[in-house]
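Repro:
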Amino acid sequence: MLPIFLFVIVLTFGLGLWAQSRVKSAYNRYRQFGSSSGVTGAQAARMILQGYGIRDVEVVEGRGTLTDHYDPGHRRLVLSPENFRTSSVAALGIAAHEAGHAIQHAERYAPLQWRMAAVGITGFASQLVFWVPILGILGGLIPLQTAFLLMALGMGVLLVFQLITLPVEFDATRRAKAILTSTGMIQPGAEQQGVNHVLDAAAWTYVAAFISTFAWFLYYLLPLLMGRD
């Protein structure tokens, strides 16, 4: 099992680095590319929400870099300071993407509803896959077969959650690209290409996370199916 364990470690670590480097490279390039519309990320998000008749979602400035997200529980669209304040192509793409999630919420987009419903059990699964290796595999407090079973179950839950996440993220990206072009906030050509690069790079982080979790799921499941220690 050691060679397989090392392979999975290298695979998941490499995928993570590759995905994050793509995002940072695309973002750093297009954060310096100003949009001709001059609309800031915050303005873009508010304009999109108003255009869809969504008036109960607050657009707020968060902290850090690339911490942008939509919070369905508090009805808040949070943009990192640079994306909130600037009118770069990267800022508009990210703001529109997060607004896409708010639109999904308002339209009761099924995969988003499933993801929201799965948050509780996913949190439990995350704690499970954190503590079982410490208490069971390393500490010897749980029989090895039981530890592998618990890890397979935990990874399975996370895998399903990430599988649901993929259409949620890809749909929000599709909406963002279409809305920015149709409203004239970005122009066809270089600006549109910049938005595509930033959002496509971000989408691949979710694909990489899914592949990584799938690899760990197989690592823990296959020995159980084959009856090996």
